[in-house]
Design brief:
Elements (H helix, E strand, L loop, with lengths): L1 E2 L6 E2 L9 H13 L4 H14 L4 H8 L3 H14 L1 H5 L13 H12 L11 H11 L7 H10 L17 H15 L8 E14 L18 E14 L5 E6 L4 H15 L7 E3 L11 H11 L2
Parallel strand pairs: 3-6
Antiparallel strand pairs: 1-2, 3-4, 4-5
Helix pairs in contact: 1-2, 2-3, 2-4, 3-4, 7-8, 10-11
Length: 300
Amino acid sequence: MIDGGSKGATVNLRYRVTLSSEECGQLQGLVSGGKAAVRRIKRAQILLAASAGNTDEEIAANVAVGTSTVYRTKRRFVEEGLEHALSEEPRPGAERKLSTGEEVLLVATACAKPPAGRAHWTCELLADEMVRLTAHESLSSETVRRRLAEKELKPWQKKMWCIPKVDAEFVARMEDVLELYAEEPDKSRPVVCFDETPRQLIGEARVPVAAKPGQPARVDYEYVRNGTANVFMFLDAHRPWRRAKVTDHRAFPDFAECMRELVDVDYPKAELIRVVLDSGSPPGTRNPAFLRNSALQLGP
């Protein structure tokens, strides 16, 4: 409602919902799928009903929500678009109890082995463990539950990637990496994440035949294995830059060559390059003498 002037008149703000065929299909799929959050499904039902010409009162009665919810959903659709209308509107409130680093620690703990004698972590156990690992004097299980729900993490499920052990060394290394990521960008001291992955090479069993007048192109759908290759990936943590390098092997000389290119080609003016590696990097990558000797063998 908007104040209409000194006489106290009011004007009803009406938001007309007109859905495209694509938006209708998306919303109908959301409703019929039944896998989304209940609030999201209700908002989809509101928009579908509003597009069909139902009044706010009829929609509120059929969807079992208040007329204010109908109004807000229609308003967000008209002003902000479909995705915003389906999503939760930001709510004012107190600051988050856990910092970004503490939330990372919570996830790591939830993915680690539970305490002795326990089959899996519970929200209460995780809350107690976070009090032990951080400076918090208390932490509610509800806070833990909300943070895990945001990450779609369910510690009682076994089908997940797990950290074998969260000990003092792991926490110290995790904090070192997080501090690097949180630093202000510095061109003279860049932070570069480095990783590698093997890739299966696949080829066609028969050579494709090009199209010609009166005959479409012919492509065979049978594929054969053509060996493997390794992909090294560089990613700057503080700017939108990345580079991939494909090699035949995942050996230390290949790694040393990547490091030399990083210094000579990608960051020739840097004073210091901080490279973040995981535990699966090629053997010897954490041995400075081995790295220096291999670089010398590669030549200037």
